[in-house]
From TrEMBL:
This is Aldo/keto reductase. One of its GO terms (cellular component) is cytoplasm. InterPro entries: Aldo-Keto_reductase, NAD(P)_OxRdtase_dom_sf, NADP_OxRdtase_dom. It comes from the Bacteria. One of its GO terms (molecular function) is oxidoreductase activity. SUPFAM superfamilies: NAD(P)-linked oxidoreductase (SSF51430). It comes from Phyllobacterium pellucidum. Residues 16-307 form the NADP-dependent oxidoreductase domain.
Amino acid sequence: MQHHQLGKTGPRVSQIGLGCMGMSGMYGPSDRAESIATIHAALDAGINLIDTGDFYGMGHNELLIAEALKGVRRQDAVLSVKFGGLRDPAGGWTGFDGRPQAVKNFAAYSLQRLGVDYIDIYRPARLDPAVPIEETIGAIADLVKAGYVRHIGLSEVGSETIRRAAAVHPVVDLQIEYSLISRGIEDNILETCRSLGIAITAYGVLSRGLISGHWTKESAQTGDWRAHSPRFQAENVDANLALVEALKKIAEAKGVSVAQIAIAWVVAQGSDIFPVIGARRRDRLAETLGALDASLSRDDLAAIEKAVPKGAAAGDRYAAFQMAHLDSEASAHR
């Protein structure tokens, strides 16, 4: 497992990270013992970047990670935590809170649930339209000065917000969706980050399983939020699965899986891009690790581009109301 510095000022992290959201019910039922075993297997394989959010399972995910990390040396895990998403008792989403006093409150609870005395990378999950980003980042900077946070990250924000945030405190990475069928960051966000020495931690690399080669219309489970995702809707899903079939032919010719070639494509986009893969089972993790051995030639990349050209996906990556609240989308033209 290769490790690189995360951005200009960040810690050294593994070439890929483990995203733990799916271990807390977001994609239907999950197995607690298998989730913990998967975290252990990731650490054993040299993955040290562990990503979570305080709103994943309303704290369940942080408690799960805390259980998995018992007996693990604190410095062997780089914990990346998102905050700010507001939930109701039924599991619904009620907004986002980026006020300074809320930031410090969220951090206090995360530290307690995770069972640690500092968080490696702390980031607002979204931009709060009612709070200037300078105030939110300023509050995290206070936590850095106090020793509760080591580094500051961002998530799903556009170029203008990135620049404003970086003017308050160094930012190590931007967590944002990036995959073969979600390439919006290539328009200007990626260039902005590179000019500021900010890395990309890419989530949705397999587009929530859509381009994993494993998901089918028949495999959808109760409680899986993908049922509300435009790319999984009836009018779009067949067109998107056709892209997967085209990608499958290239993968088979190289002797790798569809998921592996999709991950390898993201890895090939630069050493400053770190895929965060949401494996919640050890077999899926093993498949992910195999992607690091799938070296793509210039001809391979050209074939992939032809099979899945930029903008080929049918449907947006989130529902319309969510897209409207994404600063990374609203600011795409800036």
